[in-house]
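Practice problem 4.
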């Protein structure tokens, strides 16, 4: 199956101009680290940075809440510190889920660009034949 995909990619590259072929190569599948680095590019860079700062603050308060929960002797305080722990944990989970959704959005956008490039290539080839 992989050879068929490679053959299709080669056929597409042959129909593209040199500039389009370079752009097509840039749209290849990325590693996980490249996808994470992609979060720090574009218009939402500031939001990603703020999101990670909030995540670190939540981690700090989570650790502090856990330590205070083990030190307390009152049931009421134990419930409050444990609640703080779980709120911080939920906040961190939601931030991580949002980051993964952004990574998947970027991957989907890259695939759509590849598809647009292929459609453009085919339409120019059809117009040349007609």
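Answer key:
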């Amino acid at each position: 199956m992989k050879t068929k995909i490679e053959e299709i990619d080669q056929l597409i590259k042959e129909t593209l101009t040199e500039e389009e072929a370079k752009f097509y190569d840039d749209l290849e599948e990325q590693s996980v680290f490249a996808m994470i680095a992609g979060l720090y590019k574009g218009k939402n860079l500031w939001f990603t940075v703020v999101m990670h700062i909030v995540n670190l603050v939540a981690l700090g308060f989570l650790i502090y809440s856990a330590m205070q929960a083990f030190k307390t002797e009152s049931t009421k305080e134990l419930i409050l510190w444990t609640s703080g722990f779980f709120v911080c944990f939920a906040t961190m989970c939601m931030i991580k889920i949002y980051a993964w959704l952004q990574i998947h959005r970027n991957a989907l956008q890259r695939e759509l660009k590849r598809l647009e490039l292929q459609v453009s290539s085919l339409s120019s080839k059809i117009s040349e034949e007609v």
